[in-house]
Amino acid sequence: MLENWSLRFFAGLLVLFQSSLCVTNADSRPNFVLMMVDDLGIGDIGCYGNETIRTPNIDRLAADGVKLTQHLAAAPLCTPSRTAFMTGRYALRAGLGSTGRVQVILFLAGSGGLPPNETTFAKLLQKQGYTTGIVGKWHLGVNCESRNDHCHHPNNHGFNFFYGLPFTLFEDCKPGAGKGVLVDVQEKLRQMSALLALGFLTLVVVRAAGLLRISWTLVVFLAILSLLSFIVWFLPFELLRTWNCILMRNGEVVEQPMKLETLNTRLVNEAEQFMERHRDRPFLLFLSLALVHTPLFVSEGFAGKSKNGLYGDNVEEADWMVGRMVETIERLGLSEKTLMYFTSDHGGHIEYGPNGGWNGIYRGGKAMGGWEGGIRVPGIFRWPGRLTPGQVVAEPTSLMDVFPTVVKLAGGALPEDRILDGHDLMPLLEAKTNRSEHEFMFHYCGIYLNAVRWHPPHSDSIFKVHFFTPNFSPAGAIGCYDTKVCMCHGDHVTHHSPPLVFDLSRDASESHPLSADTEARLTEVLERVERAVTEHRRTLTPVEKQLTWANILWKPWLQPCCGTFPFCSCEETNHTSAGAQ
To answer: Which is catalytic among the residues 22, 71, 139, 488?
Structure first.
């Protein structure tokens, strides 16, 4: 009897010991705080060369961690870049590459977005017991078939908690800033509506005066046509601020339209409270800033503080937000248990001049295909006790690399049912290797392969091959000033035969195309890149295109609404996180 009791006692101790090991292992897993600014140029930050805009918090992040100098977005625009970041795969694998004019989601009530069958890093971390949250911008869709199906919503893509902008900032979100969605289409519809209304009034006057015998049937038909024309123009476009510029907490609309004056403070507070709520368990927080996308807005206390006008004010406020995240992690005693990451979704929007950012020495910018200025972004990792401070990594890396990096650190397994284009960054960050796993990187403009980067083995050269380049306007300029967004197809681009080739290790600004006289390996470069393109294309499978006109146009039955549609209106008065996960 005593012997049985002893066996049960020691068996119980063994179970307790094993349980304590499991808890210790779970608690040893890092937290993740991922911070992404919108449209920030790599040249806008002090640690990347800016000498006038003050970014002490981001600079400190770099000094305390590892700075990547050849960190690349997989696309030069918001929606495809963020798709690649979330999934670790090129955006066209998820159907979010553009075939024509529409290159991003334009209406929150469209049916396109990140497909439910895509696997985000947040989904995989949830399976590992992490609590996951996104605060800020999403811009990857909301609904598919009904107002509340939320098939593209963050909560359906692995995030336990969402607070922020399911869409993005457009000019329409700031009163008096103008229009930013299909402006020419809006104008044509407005003109058509006005002409039909004028025709209807003319017929009524002529019929009433007895000048012509006109059938009332014709008058009624034209009246109906005029009304329909007005609705088609007015409802989707004139009310865009109400439809697109909203705030959601999880699946509920809490402000419509959103007020920009306090937006940044609210985002910071929500991010801070999320970390405080989950300080005792592993968590992932993605702080996706609304800054510094146009229209520029600034909170009280930051206006007029920068030497670079309103844009500089925006960057310095973004730096303050990053500082708040670092301060919170340190205050909670989580520094050595937290991997912090800072980046931008793509380069600065240089067509906006002083309000559009600076991409340093790099050519081009946002929405300019594969030019370096649109895809080379800041990349900073900080993890005290694990990463050696002050390191600089000049190897090619990608926003897509975050996916495998955080999944592996969380103890998860990478999906085997799909191709991943990102690679684990930890060997580079910990200086266990000095070579990136990216021998080739493919740069897309919409669904079109625009350029290919080749880092030959046993070589310091990094060749960049451009198959076509966007046509700038006017000729000789550095951007597509007429449209503010360069197109990827037809007469909007110039195809190069042979392709333009640059060696970024010697010419990072892509100013001097190589020739047979200046590069002995030119033929080898072109042949090797051609083989790589063929191999890459074999990995692509057809998927439903999410950015077709049918998927992006406004559908009233999909419109998120606070109140009764179409009378959508509410203001967030209680800024606490009551009921948040």
So the answer is: 139
139 given a catalytic annotation: yes
Point out the catalytic residue in the list 22, 47, 71, 78: 78
Respond yes or no: is residue 495 known to be catalytic: no
Residue type, 14: L
Secondary structure letter of residue 237 according to DSSP: I
Model confidence band, residue 208 (pLDDT cutoffs 50, 70, 90): confident
Residue 421, token pair as written in the block = 């284009």
User: The domain spanning residue 421 has which CATH number?
Assistant: 3.40.720.10
pLDDT confidence bin for 502, thresholds 50/70/90: very high
Tokens 């931008």 label which residue? 344
Whole-number pLDDT of residue 581: 52
pTM of the model: 0.92
Would you state the pLDDT for residue 489? Answer: 93
Give me 44's structure tokens: 């806008």
Residues 6+ apart with CB under 8 A from 484: 349, 351, 352, 367
**Prior bond of 257 cis (ω within 30°):** yes
Alpha-carbon torsion, ordered 265, 270, 276, 278, to 10 deg: -160
Residues near 429 by Cβ (< 8 Å), separated by ≥ 6? Answer: 66, 381, 387, 391, 393
User: What is residue 117's DSSP assignment?
Assistant: T
- Cα–Cα distance, 277 to 273 (Å, whole number): 6
Cis amide prior to 354 (ω within 30 degrees): no
Task: Specify if 370 maps to a domain.
Answer: yes
What residue type is 519 in one-letter code? E
DSSP state, 259?
Answer: P
**Average per-residue pLDDT for the chain:** 92
Instruction: State how many domains the chain has.
Output: 2
**The amino acid at 531:** R
Q: Are residues 154 and 37 in the same domain?
A: yes
Let me know whether 352 and 474 are in one domain.
yes
- How do residues 295-308 score in pLDDT, each as one tens digit? 999 888 899 999 99
